[in-house]
Amino acid sequence: MLGALSIAETRNVFPTDDESLTALVIGDGFAAERLETDQETSPIVEISTAVSLSAALEQLADVDCLVCRQPPEDATLEETIDRVRRRRAELPVLVVADESWLTMARDETADHQWTDVVADGPTVDQRLRYRLPRLVERKRLSTLSQRSLAGIELAGDAIATVDPDGAIEFPNHSFAVEFGADRDGLIGQPWQDLFEPATAERLASTAIPTVEDGWRWTGTCTGRRTDGTEFSARVSIGGLEDGSLVFVVETPADDETTTG
């Protein structure tokens, strides 16, 4: 079982063809006009506007992203972000900057999480339509990941997440105990090190492609602990939207280890 971690739930943080995002645009309507173009592209962006920062602060409750120009009309960019974040601490902010202001905009947003800067120009329409959903998606996935990692840690099952490059990213306490390892020592290791060579090869050739096709794989495997002992385990592998993997390892109560 995946305990508190839901792979299906993680996939749902990404907008689908039937889902829309809400953007609040501050200022002269330039960015709003650009976002309104090509609305046949998914996800649809529902747009509301505010004539000033003060007006925008009263409309933040239900929006997914704030869009503003650089330079802003009634406050500096840093002041704009600070005032917005006092109302919505982690609301994504997308800044459209003229070429002459681009470096300053990037400098002023560098220390603020969940911000992005788009350069004004002939292709700004396409950049806005691409970057706004990506910024919102990253924020949603981060929020879900934090919840999921907390759930993984509390789960009784031995669970670990593996990054898209195949390195162990987050093993919970039960997982580290199962493999006789220190948690910090497991982080960064290839997942293949957790299994005897023939099993690792079988997982790479059969299980991982199955997961990449959108399925969950479950089977009996031979694990290998850090001291070289081997053990039989039932392993489930699932995939996350960003290409990461989730390994769940269950061993029978009467498990007998063998020396590899």
TrEMBL record:
Domain PAS: 152-214
Pfam families attached to this UniProt entry: PAS_9 (PF13426)
Gene3D superfamilies, per database record: PAS domain
InterPro entries, per database record: PAS (IPR000014), PAS-like_dom_sf (IPR035965)
Source organism superkingdom: Archaea
SUPFAM superfamilies, sorted: PYP-like sensor domain (PAS domain)
NCBIfam families associated with the record: sensory_box
Name of protein: PAS domain S-box
Taxonomic classification: Archaea, Methanobacteriati, Methanobacteriota, Stenosarchaea group, Halobacteria
